[in-house]
Specification:
Elements lengths: L5 H16 L11 H11 L10 E5 L5 E5 L2 H5 L2 H13 L6 H19 L10 H9 L14 H11 L17 H17 L6
Helix pairs in contact: 1-2, 4-5, 4-8, 5-7, 5-8, 6-7, 7-8
């Protein structure tokens, strides 16, 4: 299936589920990972893994091969992808250090936009967002984030050096794993706690 609007996707899933319930095996070919995810969730509702997702991948000498397809990873939003990269890195999983360093700032931006929907300008750089929060006055809900500004600014001073918009030489910045771990953990703590503990 491909190129279906939302209504037809829902109808197609319902028909495929009906066929699945009466079949020994059902094979679905699709280009839309969100359709695959929703189909999997619908078929797996009975606590029995019913759908195995596989994909075609490029192989040597111009051939193709079948490989496992991580539907959840393919469908995750940038915010959840950055969260996953940081949590996995901080937990000790192997990750590219530069990609992890680049994930810190958009992760925090995503958090602030989710905590204060519609109150922060989307086209502003992170430093400008922090200034916007710092200058907020009652009755703006942004005042509840003012206690975070100094910590977020300090994290941004580190994370900003890995982005072209604030540092043209970002690709040559040396990364120290222990320092990256510290700032990654600080970013996660801000998001999880929503506050900065007094020192």
């Amino acid at each position: 299936m491909c190129s279906l609007d939302v209504n037809r996707k829902n109808q197609t899933r319902a028909i495929l589920k009906s066929i699945h319930d009466k079949s020994e095996q059902l094979i679905v070919l699709a280009h839309d990972p969100y359709f695959i995810r929703d189909m999997r969730d619908e078929l797996n509702a009975k606590d029995t893994p019913a759908l195995q997702a596989i994909q075609l991948r490029h192989a040597a000498n111009g051939y193709s091969d079948l490989d496992k397809f991580d539907v959840d990873k393919e469908c995750e939003s940038p915010f959840y992808r950055h969260h996953r990269v940081l949590t996995e890195f901080c937990a000790g999983a192997p990750h590219d250090s530069r990609s992890t360093a680049k994930a810190i700032r958009p992760f925090l931006e995503g958090y602030l936009h989710r905590r204060f929907p519609g109150l922060l300008p989307r086209d502003s750089m992170f430093g400008q967002v922090l200034t916007h929060i710092r200058n907020a006055t009652t009755p703006s809900p942004l005042i509840y984030a003012q206690t975070l500004v100094d910590e977020l600014q300090d994290i941004n001073n580190y994370a900003g050096q890995f982005h072209h918009d604030t540092n043209p030489d970002c690709d040559s910045v040396q990364i120290t794993s222990s320092e990256l771990l510290t700032y990654g953990e600080r970013a996660l703590k801000v998001v999880y706690s929503g506050m900065v503990e007094p020192t």
